[in-house]
Design goal:
alpha+beta; GMP Synthetase, Chain A, domain 3
């Protein structure tokens, strides 16, 4: 043990000790800088997705409409690959079958609303009377075959007619091949 202590004393005293001390300081400084930088860099968090469907009704409606339009447009000769984006004003509105009973007693009026439900196995759901779809604000179509004006016009007219919207709400662009 005494010999090891003498070795350390020799190492830190004398001519080479200044260089060694400088190297140790640089290494310690580099370690501190690396720790500091790694603490400053935001970590990527992985978000666990569950099977619970938390998509809004308007997004569901848009995705369904986009998928249907893509399938129809793929059958058009010369269109190639196609992507469709639909923008709507709001979510669909649903009206359910209900009955309202109002009564007035001693100057106070009360209302009771009863919503009718159907039973399918063990699940119950309200009886849907009417579904009002949202207004379509615009449609973007990106197709590899939309190179010329004739194809772009054809696609614009098809989309406008299928959705019963103005052609000014439809934009067709050429996609990457």
């Amino acid at each position: 043990m005494a010999e090891e202590n003498k070795g350390f004393k020799k190492l830190f005293s004398g001519e080479g000790s200044k260089k060694l001390k400088t190297i140790i300081c640089i290494v310690l400084f580099a370690i501190i800088v690396i720790i500091f930088i790694s603490a400053m860099i935001p970590k990527k968090e992985t978000v666990k997705t569950s099977n619970v469907d938390n998509t809004s009704p308007s997004l569901k409606y848009c995705h369904e409409l986009e998928g249907k339009l893509e399938n129809v447009l793929l059958s058009v000769k010369g269109i190639g690959k196609v992507k469709v984006f639909v923008m709507v004003s709001e979510s669909p509105t649903y009206t359910y079958l209900d009955e309202t009973n109002s009564s007035t007693s001693q100057g106070q009026s009360t209302s009771q609303v009863t919503i009718y439900e159907t039973k399918n196995g063990s699940a119950t759901s309200p009886v849907l009377v009417r579904e009002e779809l949202p207004e379509i604000l615009g449609v973007l179509v990106v197709a590899t075959g939309a190179k010329d004006l004739k194809m772009q016009t054809t696609l614009t007219n098809v989309i406008a007619n299928v959705l019963s919207i103005s052609i000014s709400k439809v934009e067709v662009l050429e996609g990457k091949g």
